[in-house]
Amino acid sequence: MSRVAVLYGGISAEREVSLVSGAQVVQALRGIGHQVTGIEVGADLRALLAALDPAPDVVFNALHGRFGEDGTIQGVLDWLGIPYTHSGVRASALAMDKPAAKAVFAAAGLPVPEGRVVPAATLTDADPMPRPYVVKPLNEGSSVGVAIIRAGDNRRERVAREWRFGPDAIVEEYVPGRELTVGVMGDLPLAVTEIAPRDGFYDYDAKYAPGGSRHVIPAGVHPAAYGAALEMALAAHRALGCRGASRADFRYDDTAGEPGRLVLLEVNTQPGLTPTSLLPEQAAHRGIAFPRLCDWMLEQAACRA
Q1: Which CATH number, 3.30.470.20, 1.10.10.60, 3.40.50.300, 3.90.420.10, labels domain 95-112+176-269?
Q2: Where in the chain is the domain with CATH 3.30.470.20?
Q3: What is the 8-class DSSP label of residue 62?
Q4: What is the pLDDT of residue 213?
Q5: Residue 207: pLDDT above 60?
Q6: Local structure of 63: helix, strand or coil
Q7: From-to residues of CATH 3.30.1490 in the chain
Q8: Looking at the annotation, which residues are catalytic?
Q9: Which of 50, 108, 274, 296 has the highest local Cβ count within 10 Å?
Q10: Which CATH architecture has domain 3-85+294-299?
């Protein structure tokens, strides 16, 4: 039995998701005999430090988004010498910074969408690339702030006017086809899931609202594409230097037939652990129950100290 502190909540746009992930983890770890303290994280870092004194044996990091999975809390826990789940400072910071992560993936020979960083305000005046294209924040997760600008629509100026994610945005080619994702546990890519959103775009609601999307596991794609997705997910996990679990997201363009074009979008170093989340679903597909998944994450916990 370990004394485990589960961090959840946080101050990012993904706070509500983290609260659900944390509650699931607390219940699972208590159910298998760990001594668990849930810590709802807010804006006061001093309160968090007080809650971690005396230090637990291990921290289960169930935070999502900025400050929770971008290397910030990881650095604090390294400083305190408390082992924690998921990736360390470097991998967390790289994965959360979309342009930096794309550079790492490209250097590793992995296929990424064409795109570049632009001042968000320039979207008011003109299209930065041929339509359709995707506009994303540089460092948010769960599709927060993502917009698809298609031919004939007039959303570009509104996206620029309502932008609240810093001065810059990343714009990328829109890759048609299907949404695929692959979870990785250590050196094991779990499975390929096809995500079929109810309304055509895998946005925040489609990810977390009950019935927001349909998950097909294993994905019904060409065997060569299935195998390539597994290999790319593991290669991306290793290229970033991830620890524990991660999840790689892909677009699969099969509009001209199969096997199609597979494009790596991003890697999530803190995959969701909610009832609708993909990593637990893939683990269950491989015979790994949710409590065992959480316990395995504790076993992988480490810190630089």
Answers
A1: 3.30.470.20
A2: 95-112+176-269
A3: -
A4: 80
A5: no
A6: coil
A7: 115-173
A8: 14, 142, 208, 247, 249, 266, 268, 272
A9: 274
A10: 3-Layer(aba) Sandwich (3.40)
CB within 8 Å of 305: residues ≥ 6 apart: 78, 79, 80, 81
Q: Please, which pLDDT band fits residue 281 given cuts at 50, 70 and 90?
A: very high
Residue 205 has pLDDT above 70, yes or no: no
3-state secondary structure of 86: coil
pLDDT for res 141: 65
Six-digit token string for 257: 């037939």
Q: Is the Cβ–Cβ distance between 9 and 20 less than 8 Å?
A: no
Q: 70 CB contacts (<8 Å, ≥6 apart)?
A: 92, 93, 96, 97, 139
CA distance 146 to 197: 15
- pLDDT, tens only, 175-203: 999 999 999 999 999 999 999 977 655 55
User: What is the mean pLDDT of the segment spanning 265-273?
Assistant: 96
Cβ neighbours for 102, distance < 8 A, ≥ 6 positions apart: 112, 115
Does the structure show a pLDDT above 60 at 70?
yes
Give the pLDDT of residue 118: 95
Find how far residue 122's CA is from the centre of its chain: 28
The encoded tokens of residue 297 equal: 């994450």
- Start-end of CATH 3.40.50.20 domains in the chain: 3-85+294-299
What is the DSSP track for 160-211? HHH--S-SEEEEEE---SEEEEEEEETTEEEEEEEEEETTSS--HHHHHSTT
Strands 115-119 and 147-149: unpaired
Query: What is the average per-residue pLDDT within 34-41?
Result: 98
Residue 60 DSSP class: E
- The CATH code of domain 115-173 reads 3.30.1490
